Amino acid sequence: MSQSVASGHTVAPIQDRATEAKEATHLKSVSPIPIPSPGEQNEPNLGNVSLITGEGSKSPASQGLSNVANNPSKGDTLNDPAHGTANTKTTGEPNGIDSAQGPSPPASAATAATTAAGATAAAVASDPSSNPEAGASVSSADYDGMGAIPDEDLDWKSQMIITKPILPSSFDGFTVCASTHIGRRKNQEDRFTIAPRLLNGELAFFGVFDGTVEAHASEWVHSNVIRVLYSCPSFLKFARLSKAQRADRANRDLMVNAIKELYARVDKELIAYCAEHEYHYTACTAVTCFLHLPSRTLYVAHIADSHAVVGLPNRSASPRYAGFYLTHPHRPDQEQELRRIEAAGGSLVYLHMNKPFIRGGDFYQRKQAMQLNYSRAFGGKDLKPFGLSSVPDIKIIDIALHDSPALQKVSVEGSANLPGEHFPCLILGSDGIWDVVSPTDAVNGIMQHMVTYSDALAAHQARIFSLEKEGTPASLAEAAELDKQWSRTRPQTPTEALVQLALEIHDRKRTHDNTTVIAVYF
């Protein structure tokens, strides 16, 4: 059943429109929406968060890491009853993962949404202009072999890789869920990848990739990113350290270099693939996060305009959390971006309601325009000689336990940092989400819906347990039937609800985009 929205248009619930998408994945469109952009909004005080731009200077995002706005941005919110949890899936559960080797569902709202953690600073010594293929030094002279990852476990094919929507699922140290939708676009160009148990469960990877000019680039990237990671010298060197050395902050430069190598190698291989298949125009964005659990470290990297958002406790009573961008869009008219483009012979042009685009080469002789609204991307092979870059900005953030003294360095305009106030979640999404939903609304929505979903799941599991404990034929049959009905009667997951909200706002604004989101709870 469809729902009415303010414009008079209708939006079918996620479950009714899921069949429109031939694949479960990611987007690219640009619509002028009157909400703060990542470059305009104040960012959270996370201390001296290390930012590596790869372009030789600090970005606007790094310069804004000082104060938090008292008034989080307003707008459509998932707390609105109109965006409640009445819609349930009717086309089956997300593919998720193999239950035989997969995670456990969140046991309760407390474990899923309120695990105590805090954010603080991490300084990383790294030359932004260094060769991304170069290795990094190690603090210890020799590997001691204690906890080094065996070579047989360094085969990417043996890793758990999730590329389809997943229900909230708990792994050691975090809970994750993901959703995606084609929207009213002709093609689904969004893709995402989750690898929750790299390096024997020490490291998790999350990535969203937003395609342009069909999904050739985003499809290739999401299918190959983990394979390419396991070919990066710095990543293999990091894996062969002892477990204690991998947790040593002195060796974080290995992971930073591994990310640089990953982005460089993905782009190089993608361009070769596009040249072979004559995909002259395809490109994609990327926002990725590595979570290293023993050291409680987040490595957030991105190119173009897919974004990562963090939630922090809000000093005011409502809303409970404030959301902030950890990334900023790479646009061709930004000073350092334009400098690189013009030095390479590219040009800047304003099109489509005065949006900046990069151009280069034999533009007017082409059957299809070779131009992009962002200045960094994977692919875009014929723009690469004219200043289109694939070098990511990288942020490194500590996730500290709530009782750690380091938490005192984290503040939200005088927030008391009481027990239970923590760094609760990270959201990665395509611009189909962030063009219409503010970070604060997104964070509060996924936190609220995780509580709703977890409570419903706990009640469902308790009822099943009670019936199975009875052990009568009638009770066992009822338990089996309730289990079958869960996929139809369960509440929306947090990411389903956020995607649903974005689709409704797009319809009201008469804009169209794919929407993809990954939510990670600490």
CATH superfamily: PPM-type phosphatase domain
- Helices and strands: which structural class? alpha+beta
| Oligomeric state | single chain
- Total domains: 1
Q: Cα distance, first to last residue?
A: 35 Å
Quickly count the helices.
13
Assigned CATH architecture: 4-Layer Sandwich
Q: Give me the Rg, rounded.
A: 22 Å
Q: Could you please describe the fold and organization of this structure?
A:
The chain contains 13 helices and 20 strands. With 522 residues, it is an alpha+beta fold. Helix 11 packs antiparallel against helix 12 (473-489). Mean pLDDT is 75; it is low at 1-48, 56-92, 97-101, 107-145 and 401-421.
List keywords for this structure.
single chain, 522 residues, alpha+beta, Phosphatase 2c, domain 1, 9-stranded antiparallel sheet, 6-stranded antiparallel sheet, 20 strands, 20% strand, disordered N terminus
Please write out the topology.
Elements (H helix, E strand, L loop, with lengths): L2 E2 L5 E2 L2 H4 L32 E3 L7 H4 L45 H5 L4 E3 L45 E6 L2 E8 L8 E8 H4 L1 E10 L3 H14 L3 H7 L3 H5 L4 H26 L5 E2 L1 E7 L4 E7 L3 E7 L7 E5 L9 H9 L3 E5 L3 E5 L11 E2 L5 E2 L13 E8 L24 E5 L1 H4 L4 H32 L2 H17 L4 H16 L5 E7 L1
Antiparallel strand pairs: 1-2, 3-18, 4-18, 5-6, 6-20, 7-8, 8-9, 8-10, 9-17, 10-11, 11-18, 12-13, 12-19, 14-15, 15-16, 19-20
